[in-house]
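ok trying again, last paste got cut off:
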Amino acid sequence: MKKLQPVRGTRDVLEEEFKDFQAHLMLWNTLTMHYGFNMVDTPILEDSEVFKKTLGVTSDIIKKETYTFKDRSNNEITLRPEGTAPIIRFFINNKLQKSLPQKFSYVGPMFRYDRPQKGRFRQFNQFGVEVIGEKDIAADIELIYFARDFVNKVGISDKSFKIYVNSLGDEVSRKKYTLEIQNFFQDHKRKLTSESLERLKKNPLRILDTKNNEEKKLLIKAPKLKDFLSTESSDIFEEFKEGCKQLNVPIVLNDNLVRGLDYYNNICYEFVSNDIGAQDSFLAGGRYDGLIKKMGGPDYPGCGLAVGVERLMMLSRTSNEIENFKKFTAADSYVAIAVGKENKIKAIEIISKIREKITSSSKLASVDFICRDNLSKGLRYASEKKAAFAIIIGQEEILNKEVTIKNLQKRTQKKVKSNNIAEIFNEIEDRY
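nice, full thing came through this time. structure:
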């Protein structure tokens, strides 16, 4: 029989890593709230047109990486590969333009048919924020400041990554540059891969994103986009760079930086580290004016960023903020043991009242219930689960209308009347 395994490129997340993820998520939610973002959620499934209209036909995502299929009604559906396009669709559908700007935060799984490797999975998680309806470049400056703030708070120091920035210019700038880059590579066609030859026809800017070493050498001599920026785009980029300087955000100019998604313009940036295998980004963002109109909505500007959570967690180190949030995810663990099958119903009744008391107190705690034929087996289970207390309910306890509370760390125990739930709870709380 075939051994059942997770689908290639996906993985199971065990308890300790999930707690770590929760701590990062709680920090993200707290920080985005402090910055004025509102959490929203969009479906994992979207109409394929949401991405075909936005990501670009030459993007690797559309060409090679989307999970796209027909449903039973013959609709073409795509598992979302990124978060911005669904948020824009959400903004348009719900007619949220009455109060601008809108600042959204989102969290969730994304799906790309990518080569599985260190820090890369075919199902992965992203944290993201979007600012819709704000044309002033102050929004981009605050976003990159927020990103650096978050990254530092998870324990990633400025020394361990670089923030590459570039300007992709406006439409006029890119049209001028496109002609120049096409003319330049006409003389070097024999050195280009088939993929770059296709990009040269459909979207020459994508050649700047090549991973081919020979093509990278050509790019050193190639025309630079910065030399073709319009006055407006140049002024925007200068204001962005100056804002980062004044806020001590350590940016590095990278003339060849382009985003893998075609909807970006003017500002773009990536947080890049060498500590996740090959040099790779773990956070990226930029401005996407025109995207909302392209998707059938009103012509509002926008900008945003997204964090690859798995890559982020590979880089993050112990920080006060993460450790504090881990305390919230570390529930006190109690094991309630019904000794003897004949006592299990009565035990469940008692334990349910203890759980209600815990809920009303807003205390973070778990009460695990088991039934064993003898106490030693129950205590062994409690020890394996690293429980703080065992709540024992056997025949003697039932007859005397009591429960025995055993402190598993101090190896002491005490009997309490079972109808006095407050006293039971207090005994556990006091850790006598």
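cool. Residues 15-170+230-324 form a domain with the BirA Bifunctional Protein; domain 2 fold (CATH 3.30.930.10). The chain has two domains: 15-170+230-324, 331-430.
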